[in-house]
Specification:
The structure holds two protein chains of two kinds.
Chain A (H helix, E strand, L loop, with lengths): L3 E4 L2 E4 L5 E7 L6 E7 L6 E7 L5 E2 L8 E7 L2 E6 L8 E8 L7 E3 L3 E5 L1
Parallel strand pairs in A: 2-11
Antiparallel strand pairs in A: 1-3, 3-8, 4-5, 4-9, 5-6, 7-8, 9-10, 9-11
Chain B lengths: L3 E2 L4 E5 L4 E7 L6 E7 L6 E7 L4 E3 L3 E6 L4 E6 L8 E8 L7 E3 L3 E6 L1
Parallel strand pairs in B: 2-11
Antiparallel strand pairs in B: 1-3, 3-8, 4-5, 4-9, 6-7, 7-8, 9-10, 9-11
The chains are: A mainly beta, B mainly beta.
């Protein structure tokens, strides 16, 4: 099956710093990638849809200036949490869609962000 | 708004028994459903999917049943093994012209020897 690599798997940072999370499709080109966040013992909440070469589409309530998404190539999308605060601590997960007509999404292994 | 939810937050079964995890959805226009398995600290892993024009689909040790009349989805795991212990999510494609998935709240499956 298709592999989605997410890096780093965990990160600890000080409040006020920015953190970048990378999501790569290793053996396929991903026209669309999705970013989710997940709090402990809760479900995945969609943050934004990232389309290669265009601006991301953010879900209601997600601050686009705080969660910067860049999908510059067909195999890489990045999520940057700017000026992170303790309430941003969460498990961030990306997923990628291979191509049109194939509805299956492949998920990365997630990034645990802890903001001190 | 539309939502996907689960009836049971935790399911405990004995090794070798069959497991049934249930999910209710509210968007009658949804046409694609997926079950995911998530182990602690990892991303969701695809288990099985089903389209709305089907009511049953079988995989290896797993079966998904879809009842569109009552908007109910279930995942059946045969001969449950300790390695099946995880949180299981159902997900629903939000609409025909979108790739967005709405996830249910999750059910934790605990398998005892």
């Amino acid at each position: 099956g298709a592999v989605v690599s997410q890096h780093p798997s965990w990160v600890i940072c000080k409040s006020g710093t920015s953190v970048k999370i990378e999501c790569r499709s290793l053996d396929f080109q991903a026209t669309t990638m999705f970013w989710y966040r997940q709090f402990p013992k809760q479900s995945l909440m969609l943050m934004a849809t990232s389309n290669e070469g265009s601006k991301a589409t953010y879900e209601q309530g997600v601050e686009k200036d705080k969660f910067l998404i860049n999908h510059a190539s067909l195999t890489l999308s990045t999520l940057t949490v700017t000026s992170a605060h303790p309430e941003d601590s969460s498990f961030y997960i990306c997923s990628a869609k291979a191509d049109r007509g194939n509805e299956k999404l492949f998920f990365g292994s997630g990034t645990q962000l802890s903001v001190l | 708004g539309e939502s996907v939810g689960l009836h049971l937050p935790t399911l405990s079964v004995q090794e070798g028994d069959n497991s049934i995890i249930n999910c209710a959805y509210s968007n009658s226009a949804s046409d694609y459903f997926i079950w995911y398995k998530q182990e602690s600290g990892k991303g969701p892993q695809f288990i099985i999917d089903i389209r709305s024009n089907m009511d049953k689909r079988q995989g290896q040790r797993v079966t998904v049943l879809l009842n569109k009349t009552v908007k109910h989805l279930s995942l059946q795991i045969a001969a449950t093994q300790p390695g099946d212990s995880a949180v299981y999510f159902c997900a629903e494609k939000e609409g025909y012209n979108t790739d967005k998935l709405i996830f249910g709240t999750g059910t934790r499956l605990q398998v005892f020897p």
